[in-house]
Amino acid sequence: MEDNQSDVYLIQRAIEGMSLPIDLHIVRDGQLAVQFFDLGADPNKPCPDIVILDINLPKKPGEEVLKHVRSHSRWAQVHIIVVSTSDSERDRKVMKELGADGYFHKPSEFDEFMKLGDLVKGVLATGGWRGTGS
């Protein structure tokens, strides 16, 4: 769930760089993200393994999307990594308390952004809280 086209590109590159077999579905605002999950509530439809969620989405903030996802038992086991330009301890704490599995501070340098792939791989392998900062 990311509205910035440049960040979408970097996220795609980071995941491709780790050779992770992930099909990406891009949703560009929080309202569409909630709709995406509501449409996927059918138990016969596949459930995502991981969600990469920007905090600052238009129409509905990432925090509200995270609350929505975690309020449904269907999505209880979905891994969620929050990405944000914010490096505030408060944001990290709130996202963790709401059920995020990881937090990635969006850096300004390409090589640093590629470390998102390591975080995704680690969360998928072990679950649990992981966070990065630059």
Walk me through this protein's architecture.
This protein is α/β, with parallel strands linked by helices and 134 residues long. The chain has a single domain, classed as Response regulator (Rossmann fold, 3-Layer(aba) Sandwich), CATH 3.40.50. The protein has 6 helices and 4 strands. The protein has helices at 5-17, 30-39, 62-70, 89-97, 110-113, 116-126; strands spanning 50-54, 79-84, 102-105, 130-132. A 4-stranded parallel sheet has the order 1-2-3-4, with helices on both faces. The longest helix is centred in the N-terminal third of the chain and has 13 residues, at 5-17. The two termini are 21 Å apart. The model has no long low-confidence stretch (mean pLDDT 87).
